[in-house]
C-alpha cells in the first residue's frame, strides 16, 4: 500500500504521511499567496485610514484568492486528514461495521464534493458564456478566479472518489 493509499483509508493520522516535494512546493506557494493577500489588505487599510484612498482593490482580489484557497485546501485535506474525525466512536465497532461506516462517510463526502464541483463549473461556464467581468474598475474576467475555484472543487471530488474506493477496499480486508 502506498503512502497515498494509506492516507485515503479511514483511521490514518496526518503525522504518518509526509508531504511530497510537489505538495510542499504547492503549500509554500499557497502560503506565500495568502501572506501576499494579507499584506495587500493591511496596506489598503492603512492607505484608507491615512489618505482616504483604496488603490489596491484588496476586497476584490482577496475574495478571489480566499475562494480558490478554500477549494484547494478541501482537496489537500482529503490527502492528509486534518479534518475533524470521530474515530474514537467508530473504533469501538468490529471490522465489518467500521468499514460500512467508512463507506457511508465516503459516500456522503462524494455527494457533497460532486455538488461543489458541479455547481462551481456551472457558474464558471455561465460566466464564460455571458462574458462576465467584475463590477469594479479592475474589470477582471470572472472566469479566471472561478476556474481556479472549480479546479479545486473538482480535485476535491476526485479525491473523495478515491476515498470511497479505499473505504470499499477496507470492507474486503480481514
Question: What is this structure's SSE topology?
Answer:
Layout lengths: L2 H5 L13 H31 L6 H23 L6 H4 L4 H36 L12 H30 L2
Mean pLDDT value: 80
Which H/E pattern describes the elements?
A: HHHHHH
The proportion of residues forming helix, as a percent range, comes to: over 70%
Euclidean distance between termini CA atoms = 15 Å
Taking Cα atoms only, what radius of gyration do you get, to the nearest Å?
20 Å
Percent strand: under 5%
**Contiguous uncertain segments of 5+ residues:** 1-16
Identify the overall geometry: elongated
Characterise this structure.
The chain is mainly α. The protein is built from six helices and no strands. It has helices at 3-7, 21-51, 58-80, 87-90, 95-130, 143-172. Helix 3 (58-80) packs parallel to helix 6. The protein is elongated.
Key terms for this structure?
disordered N terminus, 174 residues, mainly alpha, 6 helices
Short structural description:
The protein has 174 residues and is mostly helical. 74% of the residues lie in helices and 0% in strands.
Amino acid at each position: 500500500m502506498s503512502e497515498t493509499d494509506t492516507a485515503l483509508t479511514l483511521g490514518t493520522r496526518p503525522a504518518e504521511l509526509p508531504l511530497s516535494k510537489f505538495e510542499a512546493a504547492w503549500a509554500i506557494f499557497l502560503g506565500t499567496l495568502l501572506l501576499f493577500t494579507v499584506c495587500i489588505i493591511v496596506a489598503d487599510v492603512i492607505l484608507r485610514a491615512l489618505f482616504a484612498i483604496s488603490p489596491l482593490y484588496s476586497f476584490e482580489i482577496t475574495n478571489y484568492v480566499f475562494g480558490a484557497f478554500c477549494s484547494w485546501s478541501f482537496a489537500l485535506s482529503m490527502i492528509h486528514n486534518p479534518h475533524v474525525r470521530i474515530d474514537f466512536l467508530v473504533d469501538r465497532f468490529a471490522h465489518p461495521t467500521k468499514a460500512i461506516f467508512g463507506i457511508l462517510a465516503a459516500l456522503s463526502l462524494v455527494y457533497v464534493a460532486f455538488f461543489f464541483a458541479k455547481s462551481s463549473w456551472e457558474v464558471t461556464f455561465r460566466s464564460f458564456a455571458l462574458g462576465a467581468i467584475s463590477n469594479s474598475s479592475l474589470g477582471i474576467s470572472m472566469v479566471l478566479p472561478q476556474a481556479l475555484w472549480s479546479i479545486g472543487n473538482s480535485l476535491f471530488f476526485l479525491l473523495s472518489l478515491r476515498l470511497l474506493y479505499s473505504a470499499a477496499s477496507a470492507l474486503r480486508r480481514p
